[in-house]
């Protein structure tokens, strides 16, 4: 021991003497931003700089002589790493650093062996904050992807332009965290006004305010019509070359920074040549930052441009609907005039047909420019109008399709999937569904299809309008989003587990005693880490179920067995909340995977207990509803659920009251997992509730097959 200690001190002394002989190297060593350490073969610190002391949270004297393994987990083996690295070469890697004060940091290292014999150089960098910043950026981008998918879906499913614009500015303002987001429409006389707006309460509204022409002159309009996008960090910076009158105008609204994206109308389809494409400036999608200048990032610009393109599609759809209604009015007017004089009738019909042809020509010009299947089908399921997309994608011209039955156009297999929705539309219902369609090139694409009934004044269904939009890209985005959530959840699980374990050790007091306030803060951190671990596990469970990466091992089970098992598992939680848990087991045999059904029951019982008041009761019951299925019910006496939330609570991350759910430890995934499990058993799950009186969650499971 004496010799080894003497050798260690001698080696430290020699290195220190060499460094002292070189003042420049000594200055670099001490003032380097990165932590620098010299170690022996065991990883014992021989010499360290000030940055290393700061990283490890120890003084120079306290750190010298300590072994690196004292601060790392068991997976980090310094001797093994040195053995695998050739002399004079470098090794890079990462390890989790647990400081004496309990702080856990992630460290990236570069190891150079034998800078002098048996002495090794380590460069250490704390990458904890950098990794968190990267994760925050990924989260922000995922929020933008979800926003784009949500707004795009609303545009595809709705023809109400005001609703689409209101949803767009609201969601953009929320995700972008801007002070104001508005849609500005350019009027024919060169002026303009804001027609939709989302603004924070402490800033003045601009909605319906008309802008004078001098603040948005023709040369500006021309540039935006050519697709110019402007991201202005500081409106008062002279490099932006903003007109003085414009600066004075926007100053009255406290605008410090702005992002402007043009909304172009009548975009031509991809089949037309570039030389024939013409864009007309309809308006602008604008984001304001008012409390300080803001640097806009490229990803925000790209998503804003994509949303502006979706608004252009919504404008075209609204114009299409207006033209379709005009056609219906013209044809209805013809029927009212049948009792007129024959000569007058002929003249009127000729004029009407001429107007109809012009209207249909205009309609066809508009619809042919849209990459959407657009058609009108009569009550005999025969096509009376369709746009050029049918020819581009199906290889069938409008003339060949006119008068044909739907089944002739789409084929037997596709028609079987469409038939139930077609019949519903002819009964007067608006129908929206998704279908896989094989195009003329042999490729299969996903389409979102909407049928809008054409109902006359006598409430008779004359046919329906059909709109089919290609949603293959949105499906790809959803798959990318699901993969992203899965990857992030997997990446979070390991560091969260380590963090949770470290907090558990600290809570036990084995590493020292904290003050009462410190112990309370530590327990709060431990509880929230446990909730985060539970959230990650729920995300992974839901992802695995949705992707089909699990196996249902169904067998004959007694309902009473897993009802008792779920009740016993939740009894400690019920006692902790002061809630009485009552179950009424029934001796019914069913065909299920008992483990998954127990998971669904415990999720439902957990929700019922969390949202019950102390002294309340939660019931778990089951009954044989009919020969083919069993009805289960979890009933509580909690605060109840609004009728508007009874459907959405089964979606991912949907909660009745997010603030209340956070207090009670909810993740917003339990009911989504329940629904997936029940649906995999060919059952159905739903909720019924009365505010102030409690809620009941029902689901059905199949009885034994006959």
Automatic annotation (TrEMBL):
Annotated PAS domain residues: 21-75
Domain Histidine kinase: 487-705
Matching Gene3D superfamilies: 1.10.287.130, 3.30.450.40, Histidine kinase-like ATPase, C-terminal domain, PAS domain
Coiled-coil positions: 304-369
EC number: 2.7.13.3
Phytochrome chromophore attachment site domain segment(s): 160-310
Domain PAC: 431-483
GO molecular function: phosphorelay sensor kinase activity
Recorded superkingdom: Bacteria
Catalytic reaction(s) noted: ATP + protein L-histidine = ADP + protein N-phospho-L-histidine
Classification via InterPro entries: GAF, GAF-like_dom_sf, HATPase_C_sf, HATPase_dom, His_kinase_dom, HisK_dim/P_dom, HisK_dim/P_sf, PAS
Keywords, ordered alphabetically: Coiled coil, Kinase, Membrane, Phosphoprotein, Transferase, Two-component regulatory system
Signal peptide as annotated in the record: none
Record Pfam families: GAF, HATPase_c, HisKA, PAS_4, PAS_8
CDD domains: HATPase_EvgS-ArcB-TorS-like, HisKA, PAS
SUPFAM superfamilies: ATPase domain of HSP90 chaperone/DNA topoisomerase II/histidine kinase (SSF55874), GAF domain-like (SSF55781), Homodimeric domain of signal transducing histidine kinase (SSF47384), PYP-like sensor domain (PAS domain) (SSF55785)
Family note: In the N-terminal section; belongs to the phytochrome family.
Function text: Photoreceptor which exists in two forms that are reversibly interconvertible by light: the R form that absorbs maximally in the red region of the spectrum and the FR form that absorbs maximally in the far-red region.
Protein name: histidine kinase
Species this chain originates from: Atlanticothrix silvestris CENA357
């Amino acid at each position: 021991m004496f010799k080894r200690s003497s050798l260690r001190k001698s080696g430290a002394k020699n290195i220190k003497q060499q460094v002292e002989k070189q003042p420049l190297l000594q200055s670099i060593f001490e003032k380097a931003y990165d932590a620098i350490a010299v170690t022996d073969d065991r990883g014992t610190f021989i010499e360290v700089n000030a940055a290393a002391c700061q990283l490890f949270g120890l003084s120079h004297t306290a750190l010298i002589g300590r072994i690196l393994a004292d601060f790392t987990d068991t997976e980090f083996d310094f001797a093994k790493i040195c053995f695998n690295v050739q002399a004079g070469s470098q090794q890079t890697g990462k390890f989790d650093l647990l400081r004496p004060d309990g702080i856990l940091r992630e460290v990236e290292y570069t190891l150079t062996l034998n800078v002098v014999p048996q002495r090794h150089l380590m460069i250490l960098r704390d990458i904890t904050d950098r990794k968190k910043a990267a994760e925050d950026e990924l989260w922000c981008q995922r929020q933008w992807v979800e926003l784009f998918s949500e707004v795009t879906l609303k545009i595809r499913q709705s023809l109400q332009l005001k609703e689409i614009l209101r949803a767009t500015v609201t969601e953009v303002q929320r995700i972008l965290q801007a002070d104001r987001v508005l849609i500005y429409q350019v009027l024919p006389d060169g002026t303009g006004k804001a027609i939709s707006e989302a603004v924070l309460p402490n800033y003045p509204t601009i909605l319906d305010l008309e802008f004078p022409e001098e603040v948005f002159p023709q040369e500006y309009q021309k540039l935006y019509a050519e697709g110019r996008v402007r991201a202005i960090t500081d409106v008062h910076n002279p490099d932006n070359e903003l007109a003085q009158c414009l600066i004075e105008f926007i100053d009255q609204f406290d605008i410090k920074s702005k992002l402007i994206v043009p909304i172009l109308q009548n975009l031509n389809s991809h089949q037309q040549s570039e030389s024939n494409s013409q864009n007309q400036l309809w308006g602008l999608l604008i984001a304001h930052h008012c409390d300080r200048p803001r640097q806009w990032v490229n990803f925000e610009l790209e998503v804003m441009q994509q949303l502006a393109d979706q608004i252009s599609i919504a404008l075209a759809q609204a114009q299409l609907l207006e033209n379709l209604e005009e056609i219906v009015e013209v044809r209805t007017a013809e029927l009212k005039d049948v009792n007129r004089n024959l000569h007058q009738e002929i003249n009127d019909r000729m004029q009407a047909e001429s107007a109809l042809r012009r209207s249909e020509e205009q309609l066809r010009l508009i619809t042919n420019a849209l990459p959407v299947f657009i058609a009108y089908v009569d009550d005999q399921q025969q096509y009376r109008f369709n746009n050029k997309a049918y020819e581009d994608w199906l290889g069938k011209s409008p003339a060949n399709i006119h008068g044909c039955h739907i089944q002739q156009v789409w084929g037997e297999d596709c028609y079987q999937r469409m038939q139930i929705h077609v019949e519903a539309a002819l009964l007067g219902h608006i129908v929206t569904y998704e279908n896989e369609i094989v195009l003329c090139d042999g490729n299969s694409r996903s389409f979102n299809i909407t049928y809008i009934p054409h109902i006359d004044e006598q409430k008779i269904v004359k046919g329906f309008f059909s709109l089919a939009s290609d949603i293959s890209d949105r499906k790809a985005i959803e798959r990318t989003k699901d993969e992203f959530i899965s990857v992030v959840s997997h990446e979070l699980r390991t560091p969260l587990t380590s963090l949770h374990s470290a907090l558990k050790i600290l809570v036990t007091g084995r590493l020292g005693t904290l003050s009462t306030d410190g112990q309370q803060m530590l327990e709060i951190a431990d509880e929230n880490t446990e909730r985060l671990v539970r959230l990650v596990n729920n995300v992974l469970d839901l992802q695995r179920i949705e992707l089909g990466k699990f196996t249902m091992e169904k067998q004959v089970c007694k309902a009473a067995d897993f009802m008792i098992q779920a009740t016993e598992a939740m009894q400690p939680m019920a006692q902790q909340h002061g809630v009485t848990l009552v179950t009424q087991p029934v001796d019914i045999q069913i065909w299920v995977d008992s483990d998954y059904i127990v998971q669904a029951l415990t999720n439902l019982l957990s929700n019922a207990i969390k949202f019950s008041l102390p002294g309340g009761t939660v019931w778990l019951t089951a009954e044989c509803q009919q020969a083919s299925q069993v009805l289960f019910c979890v009933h509580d006496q909690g605060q109840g659920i609004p009728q508007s939330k009874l459907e959405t609570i089964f979606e991912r991350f949907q909660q009745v009251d997010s603030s209340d759910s956070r207090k009670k430890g909810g993740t917003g995934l339990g009911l989504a997992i329940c629904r997936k499990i029940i649906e995999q058993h060919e059952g159905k799950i739903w909720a019924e509730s009365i505010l102030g009186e409690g809620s009941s969650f029902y689901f059905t499971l199949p009885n034994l097959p006959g």
